[in-house]
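Protein Record: Sequence and Backbone Structure Tokens
======================================================
Tokens: labelled as protein backbone structure tokens, with as many entries as the chain has residues.
Question of interest: how does this chain fold, as expressed in backbone structure tokens?

___
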Amino acid sequence: MTQTTTRTEGTFTFKDWKEEELSEGPSPKLARARVINDYSGGIEAADTDCAYTFVYLEDGTGSFAGFQRLNGTLDGRAGAFIVEERGTFAGRGEVRCTFEVVSGTGELTGLRGTGRYVAVHGEPSVAYVFEYTLP
């Protein structure tokens, strides 16, 4: 049986950001952050829980990886799911990220999917695109 891929879109806003530097001295620098986001659109999830690790390079660029737990609804189906995120950022304040579902619960059990977003420093919200399948 072939599963149909569904595309959904929306935005999220940063609600809280707590970052701490893990390395001292010259670049590259290592940091970690705990971030809370609010999602709207196809994904409705308040107070998501994110844990990221960042590498900051001397030229202002860098990369990051982490996980985010979203608890709410996906196109009306209730549950929670975790995504693994990987991204890069440039000194001009642009972040590019892709993410992939690790697991889902409730009506989102069996969820598979990938998504992406581009965040620009200073913008109040970030648009995302998420393509997924459910059994």
User: Anything to note?
Assistant: Residues 13 and 64 are 18 Å apart (CA to CA). The domain at 10-133 is CATH 2.40.350.10 (AOC barrel-like). The chain has a mean pLDDT of 95. The chain is about 0% helix and 70% strand.
